[in-house]
Amino acid sequence: MEVDVAKSAGFCFGVRRAMELASQTAEDAKGKKVYSLGPLIHNPQAVEKLVSLGIGAIDSLDGADPGGIYIVRTHGLPPKIIEDARQDGITIVDGTCPFVSRAQRWAASLKADGYQVIVVGDPEHPEVIGIVGATDDTALVCRSPGDLEGLDLRRRVGVIAQTTQTFENFRRCVDKLLEKAEELKIYNTICTATTQRQEEAARMAREYPVMVVVGGRNSANTTNLAELCRKAGARTFHVETMDELDPAWFKGVKKAGVTGGASTPSWIIEGVVKKMNEFDNEALGVETNEEASKESRTPDEPAIEPAARPAAEAEKDIYSETFRSLSVGQIINAKVVQVQNDEVLVDIGYKSEGVIPLAELKDPPPAAASDVVSVGDEINVYVVKLDDGEGNVVLSKRRADAHKAWEYLREAKAKNETIEATVRERTKGGLLVDLGVRGFVPASHASREYVEDLSVFVGKKLPFKILELDEGRRNIVLSHKLVEEEEYLKTKKETFANLQEGAILDGVVKRLTNFGAFVDIGHGVEGLLHVSEIAWSRVKQPSDMLSIGQKIQVKVIGIDRENERISLSLKQAMPDPWSTVADRFQTGQIVHGEVTRVVDFGAFVRIADGLEGLVHVSQLADRHVAKPSDVVNVGDRVDAKILNIDPAAHRISLSIKEAHGALNQAAEKEAKEAVEGQTTEVAAPNDNNFTSLGEIAGNIDLPKLDRK
Ligand code: F3S
After folding, report:
1. How confident is the model at residue 309 (pLDDT cuts 50, 70, 90)?
2. Is the CB of 12 under 6 A from ligand 1?
């Protein structure tokens, strides 16, 4: 038979804490008598163990020995009884589970606010008696929805659950109250440990035919567990110890489940499991390792009872641990055991529970505690107060985080290290970042480049250098710009080291000036593209050819490593137009171009991109020209004849005069051909249709200079 044990079986947080508290109290008693008020937990075997430590159980404080020490059990007591006893000089050690204390506090505050308090639970149970006591005995108790029938309730009702209630019963009672109350405040005080234990037990009971539930018969949560398992369909046996197990329960069973109540010591559960495994082995007739070891034992060697070793180990676990001593300002480790909306309860291994109020959880305080921590999280906390008046240790996660953050920042500043932090918000003068503590980045240190709207950084994780660190004034000033600067200088150095003259690189135009453009050739490294290197033809203003942000390819034509200057050329990254001029143009060809410059000795005409020719003053017109500007102006579109091409000298000679002559001749020829064609066509039918050459030529639009 396979035996599966529930992970949640055994002591819960509250019971373990109470047992540790009792053990420590007995150790520190210095001869005083120690009593628990009622059995400390609902498990006879665990109570026996306490007796062996000198802790007896008494039923009430009536006639209590003022020299004794009295431990309140996990279920708690009505607050008034504790208060009266303390006033009578009786030493009380409060072992009430923090979750039960919480239920008492909520009940008291509901009552103070004028609500009718209803407790869903067992009216005889000490926990419920304590909660009712917290309301000066005004709370009503219901076991089930049926108890609420016929009750005359106040308009405003507050409902609280016994921590070991099933959620189903609590929900049904709440449904009933919703029908009756005008206003209902619901406090689900069912302990999460209980819920988890119940859910796991029900799941196992649906899976396995037999469930064994281990724990005291006087334990409400163990009894509830057994009931749940039965309802989920498993044959369920509630036992206190392994001695009650009967092999007949497991006949034909291949797999059985075991769970235990919150007050069941682990050694008892382990004993039960061990014995169940033995049933299986006996039924199969297989010799177990245990039996084999009995056979091989020497006669002098003492026999070891099967459960003796686990029990001893479990006792060691429970009793050997001592409580932590605490002092205000100390930073300690804590485990989250419950997360409420407005506070978090943590286990700190101390005689009292730790409470972290919402405002002490994070800076700024979160909307809900569950946004920051979850049950089971291990966190560091700062001790704010040892007792908040209700026996709780007040703790702060925020301050522990801040302490850690300052330590880290001090070290980073000393080593000039770069730190990382998330930008939380933009303020008037800069940015606020979250370092566990608040840091400030002045606007001038947000970036090495101008950024118009700093909110682009909000939500981003960025690297920073620490400019100022003043713990006394809580002042942390950071710079992102310095990190960028450092990065830029490093990259620039690398870029210079790898840069080769003649390399063709991708670049982005960053700035334009009269004398050229600054081009980023990667990682913020800029080179100068002089105006003379922008195009093969003459460029007057860089902005005529380029715009900021334009992507271009440039050739590296000069590197001044000493002064860290780079010269770039755009035109040299493109083919030289003079290298193909002979293929594209011939002497005698008539071309159309634009006058780019007019000088004393003639005019320059651009006939293609990067190619300009000179029309000498003598070639401007078929008459004497005193000043070239009398005939042409910059921007004029003209026809010109190519007189000569000299690619090596980058020279082309042009003539407007000859172009006109040629064009006029061509026009005359064309006109003549047209007249001849017309005469032939019209002469035959009618002589009156004859048109003179002059008339026809006058209608032809001859080529001439045109102006823009
Ligand atoms: Fe406390 Fe929950 Fe245990 S209420 S005693 S931790 S079951």
Report:
1. very low
2. yes
**Helix (H, G, I), strand (E, B), or coil: what is residue 587?**
coil
Ligand 1 atom nearest 12 alpha carbon: 3
Question: What confidence score (pLDDT) does residue 497 get?
Answer: 85
Q: Model confidence over 66-82: pLDDT tens digits?
A: 788 999 988 999 999 88
Any ligand 1 atom below 6 A from CB of 163? yes
Q: DSSP string covering 673-703, please?
A: HHHHHHHHHHHTT-GGG---HHHHHHHS---
- In 3-state terms, what secondary structure has residue 283? helix
Task: Say which residue the tokens 């091409």 belong to.
Answer: 645
Q: Which whole-number Å values give the CA distances from 463 to 436, 469, 470, 480, 614, in the listed order? A: 15, 16, 20, 6, 60
Residue having the nearest C-alpha atom to atom 2 of ligand 1: 191
Distance 75 CA to ligand 1 centre (A): 9
Sequence-distant (6+) residues with CB within 8 A of 420 are 461, 462, 463, 464
Q: Which of 20, 127, 270, 612 is catalytic?
A: 127
Whether 391 shows a pLDDT value over 70: the answer reads: no
**Closest C-alpha to ligand 1, atom 5:** 14
Q: What are the distances in angstroms from CA 445 to CA 295, 405, 408?
A: 81, 22, 22
Q: Could you read off the pLDDT of 265-285 as tens digits, one per residue? A: 988 999 999 999 888 655 544
* Amino acid at residue number 57: A
- pLDDT tens by residue, 49-66: 888 888 888 888 777 777
pTM of this structure: 0.45
